[in-house]
Specification:
globular, six-stranded antiparallel β-barrel
């Protein structure tokens, strides 16, 4: 569910473990990292195939009972302005984490990115799923650049795995990045805090 930390903020906290279908009896916010490519040849693979709890009328971005994605989103932070950065933290596979570490082992001279996300949530009052955050145009991916803070590019990946639960010996790796719109490029993003409460934002100046 979107939080209201700032007047125009659109921040989402997602249950990434729920996205792995570990507790299908619950209905929680779940997010998917759909695209991350650029930085001079870094293309993360869609090597997660997870369930789609929505899979019904009203879903426009994907269809079917499975979603192929790069990773599962834990948090999405955006203050709402045309030039404001978007920060995403997601969990990815060992292979994708290794690819990011290999890219960061040398100075990163190219910061251009193409990125896409998809977040769905459940409204307990109406008992309906709804699309909470996605790209409306272009529909597949937005043109962006890695942001920097204090002279440090905002792209990080954990060295140690996070177990998906206490009983399965399977780990995923936290990937965190912050992106700003690419120069002279715009994306139209749609957000919602309920099935009938929608907001369209332009990202890029």
């Amino acid at each position: 569910m979107a939080s209201r930390d700032a007047p125009n903020a659109l921040n989402f906290k997602c249950d990434w473990r729920y996205g792995l279908n570990l507790n299908p009896s619950q209905k929680n916010s779940v997010g998917y990292l759909m695209d991350f490519s650029g930085c001079g040849g870094l293309t993360l693979k869609k090597d997660f195939e997870v369930w789609n709890p929505f899979d019904s009328a009203g879903q426009t971005v994907v269809s079917g009972d499975r979603i192929k994605c790069i990773g599962l989103v834990e948090s999405f932070e955006y203050e709402g302005g045309e030039g404001d950065p978007i920060r995403i933290r997601a969990f990815v596979s060992k292979g994708n984490a290794a690819d990011v570490r290999a890219k960061l082992a040398r100075p990163l001279n190219n910061t251009s990115l193409k990125v896409a996300w998809y977040i769905i949530d459940f409204d307990n009052d109406s008992k309906l799923w709804y699309e909470a955050a996605f790209l409306k145009a272009p529909t597949k991916k937005a043109d962006a650049n890695l942001d920097s803070a204090g002279g440090e590019l905002q792209l990080f990946v954990d060295n140690d795995a996070t177990p998906i639960n206490d009983t399965l010996d399977i780990g995923v790796y936290a990937l965190e990045f912050q992106a700003v719109p690419a120069d002279n490029k715009k994306a139209t993003m749609e957000f919602a805090t309920g099935p009938r409460r929608r907001l369209v934002k332009t990202w890029g100046e």
